[in-house]
Structures are given as structure tokens and as C-alpha cells.
Amino acid sequence: MSAKLRGGESPTMDAVRLRRVNRRLAQGLGGELADLYVDSRETSPREAYRRPSRRHFLNRLASDIRRPGFAMVIAETDGLVGCAFGFPIRGDGFYWPGFDGALPHSIEQLTESGSVFAITDILVRPHPQDQDVARRLQERLLTDQQATLGATLADRADHPTLTALRSWGWLDLGEIWRPISATVLRVLVLPVGELTAVRLEGLAHDAWTRWPG
């Protein structure tokens, strides 16, 4: 997961429409989604972090599309300006191996109940309303899936993404080590509803104390 906030010319917020797309349509949009990925991940030469390639994104998208429960929401004006997609996290705990420390009991309970949805990516073509578009996309996707909690992973070296996610309401939960990619990832969660937010408030504070920045 990565994200980029930047200024630029764009249509007004009222012109942005959100739409759910099924697997077949998501596959057909592959090229446009890859273009969106490149546009939303533009980095300056001064940034040390380099995001995965267009090909890597397309491979990951194809893998996600095959997952049970895959869902996507796109944002459009006269063309594609954003998207969010992911899949429900199974209750068998497959998403959490490598978590640093004990997984909080409340997260285990929500996962076992089938209430957690993993958002793989939130992509927004840069423009002044990108933060609002990102919030609308993530909220629509989680609401459509009747999820109580969103979860996502970001490379801990990808500071622009982490900053963007936090500005969209995501809370730090901890870190996960993925041996296959030899990468340490930050785990962030997005509560849906006030009750879930209250349950996770203390966890987010503890995680921020352990892994500041």
C-alpha cells in the first residue's frame, strides 16, 4: 500500500462519482488502473523510497482479483481519478503471521467474526481534493462490505504513504515481518463507527509509543 498527496488542476469535488466494479470490470480496467498507480505514486529524486513498478502493481492486482470476496470501488469524472480495492480477511488468521508481539484480543475477535476487510490500495490521481476522494473511497468500500474494521500494510520506509494514510484517519497498530519479501511493514487499521474507534483508541496510542514516526 502506498499513497501520494499533491496539488494540481482538477474538477470540483461534486463532479466525482463513486462506482462499484466487479471482477470482470476490474480486469478490464487493468491498464487504466496501472496508469492511475503510476500517477498517484510519483516521487521526487530527493525521496529515498522507491515504490514497486507498474508490472509489480498489475501482478498484485491480478492476484487480489482472484481472492474470495475481492471488491473494488472507483472514482470517476470524465475519466478514472481514483480507486480502492481489497478483500475480506479470513478468520483463520492468515493475514497476521509475523506480527510483532501478541495480536490484540479485540483485533482477533473482529477477525474471527469476519468483520475485517483488508484494503490493498487506495489510489488517487493528484489534485486538490485527493484527500476527500480517498476518504470517500475507503468509507464506501468498507461500508459496502459491512466491515467493522479496515486493515492495510505499508512499508515502514514509505513515509509519504504513512503520512497520507494517517491523514485519512488510519491508526498505527504495529509491525509485521514478511520473510518472503524481507520487508518490515507497518500495520494500520481504520475503525468503522464510533464503538470500534473507542475500542481501538488505546491500542493505537500504545502502538504509536512503541513505533513512533
From TrEMBL:
**Record's InterPro entries?**
Acyl_CoA_acyltransferase
Matches recorded under SUPFAM superfamilies: Acyl-CoA N-acyltransferases (Nat) (SSF55729)
Protein name, as recorded = N-acetyltransferase
Query: What is the organism lineage in this UniProt record?
Result: Bacteria, Bacillati, Actinomycetota, Actinomycetes, Kitasatosporales
